[in-house]
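TOKENISE THE FOLD
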Amino acid sequence: MDPSSLEKSRRVQIQISADLNRRLDRAARDSGISKSAYVRVALEREFAQEVQLEREISRHRPKVTSP
């Protein structure tokens, strides 16, 4: 089992504009999940993209060799 799934969940409160809330409502409803779940999935995707970008950057970074 993934150790991170055993961690206690944390509550986060944010303020968003009325327009962003309408868009979130619509997207969550269309996806069949709650707004909280939609935000969580969006965060997971964002962080996964960051990790992938870091991997790609390090892959293309020139190797430093010591003399």
Q: What stands out?
A: Residues 28 and 36 are 9 Å apart (CA to CA). The mean pLDDT is 91.
